[in-house]
């Protein structure tokens, strides 16, 4: 205030202070061995593995799904042929929310933003000619995860693939659905129970499967800042750990199979700091608070998706530059797998051309940029280490608030549930989203092509072409499935499921029975909605 | 920076199963801060529910956000529902979301008065409302 000439301190995208110059004084309280350490060693700040990309490059995992299972299967094979080495499924809204393709609410959305799956027959088509014991598969599904996971296990069994050989992930992060992504079906308590059922079942029967992908990505897409993304994701991870401990599972039996999923925004160093802080926080939480003893239980591994919300309609080719910077930040932050969003995603789901460009971005980073030649190249930077400390400290404040909302032996579990009930998390994210929007509209946050450096005229892109006939085809297939099964078998399977839900048993065994009897996803979810009730959006802003 | 009350009443909703509600909540705050009364129905409502609520709440504006690609089918059902309740003419219908350029004209033919694709500023929407809501209730008479 006294010196009008003095420049305003810069701030990171999430509002953390950034000084013009950093020096060793900024790390006076940082003990390098204790707080940063060696890659592959506690507290894993520098990465989960000692050799990182020198040992193995990140997995290039572009998510895909649209239309029918057959159409998506073709896209998977296209991606596998063009340098992809893992499959990530994107389901349509009816599948994500647990409705069959002929439900009233599904109209116009069948196969629109992802692939439509109604029964185990569709799951079989989806992975036609893809060897399930060789390709790692990520099932991006949450509240109905137990059903889709059941279908996947059932298909594997039919093909004679041992469940022990399956490698992959089910997102199964039910809690974030109440404030990020919003494809909920059931309330917070019942959906957390189902998440924990999958953890318990896979721990015992599908040992190489990642049981939850604890996701900050959707929280960030919903408008949170990086601090909130980090804090709410870690808090939810703690709630899942507490829920599994409450079930009686030993911490080291399930913790190594938890993984994380973050977004990547434009502020390169803030993003790198976020990933490094996440690893350090998780390692300390698992070791000190939950008494894990295996290093695998403490080391955080994560998938990154560059954020669709940073992509602009104006000058869409600019999005290729944004995607490259974000992918660079994810790699400098030590991601284990990566999806670069298509440059045309402000218009529609990505075209094949856009996905080819995203894969090329990853390949150029891998093989031309030199950033993979040494492990954690930014370690020891006065700025990056300071930012890592700052973002961690800010995240702990939120986690403390959520813990204070809970009580008992498992306060993070009860704290998250009450933070969801009171819409606390949703409103915090909505506030950040609004503030960011106002900053853009006032021009305080420059977005090239949107509020500065606009160009004349518009470029016409070749967009993804959706075939509206596919919805009718899918409905026809559903009717055919319903007609070709034993009604008595379906009825009996669904009533065993209902009884198991009432008795609070693990629902995976009865779900496996139901999908085997060709019960549809909607029928199985309806059975659960009967017992647990349906969650309704509180409509807060 | 909230301005004073404007007497303009807006109904906002998301049709279908689409979960992308970041934009509509931002818009709800912006309209509230511009002095409008905002009724937000939340997600997963049907066109009939929107039309019924628009009638009951006697709103000036209905704003729909769709990022699922299902806008053509859902908006056509909504405009029919508004016509059936005989409120289509004095309700200003706005649609936002991932709306391709080629769909703007067909939407306008259905009766949509303003289309706001992703990336639109909230000020463009509030200004649109101030310019289009008449019936003499936008400024309280003293």
TrEMBL record, chain B:
It comes from marine metagenome. InterPro entries: Acid_CoA_mut_C, Cobalamin-bd, Cobalamin-bd_sf. Residues 7-139 form the B12-binding domain. GO terms for molecular function: cobalamin binding; isomerase activity; metal ion binding. PROSITE patterns: B12_BINDING. PANTHER family: METHYLMALONYL-COA MUTASE, LARGE SUBUNIT, METHYLMALONYL-COA MUTASE, MITOCHONDRIAL-RELATED. The lineage of its organism: unclassified sequences, metagenomes, ecological metagenomes. Its cofactor is adenosylcob(III)alamin. Keywords: Cobalamin, Cobalt, Isomerase, Metal-binding. The keyword Zinc does not apply. This is B12-binding domain-containing protein.
